[in-house]
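Quick note —
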Amino acid sequence: MRHSQRLTFQIVGPLPCRTAQPGGSADKNLPTSDFSFTFAPMNQNQHTDTATDERFMRMALAEAAEALAQDEVPIGAVVVADGMVVGRGHNLTETLRDVTAHAEMQAITAAAASIGGKYLDACTLYVTVEPCIMCAGAIGWSQMGRIVYGAPDPKRGFQTYAPRAFHPRASVTQGILEEECAQLMRDFFRRKR
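Predicted structure written out below.
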């Protein structure tokens, strides 16, 4: 079996460029030289560390376990900024009798309150199951910088109905602890039948 290594790069240094003005002259406020850049491997703190993703997904799984203990659909979420959890939540739709009380909505609301702003572009959302279209809309409006989810949801997940709901600059990682996340859901619904 061949193992592949994923390399992620970032652009280092400024990227001066030319802009043409009406009449063909270059903008005098910008450098007119050709641009150059170098590629450098991203450091381990920049979204490439699987161990970190698994650690935060385990926190989301702990939130899902809280939901399960309350007989809620076991989905949990945490929002992380600069390596710290700034928001967390789990499904509370039955407890609150509110169809919008999904784990992602709870975590986003808590994160926005924690950081003091509605835009979460410097944050990562970890959620145990692929977000639904309602949550994907909220994630998009919050401008979440990165979304990491465990198990796919082919019946109600955003990929089926609104694959472009997230902010255009957001990155998505799927499949982190997928089997554990999926098993929690299977066990819950098996008990309900």
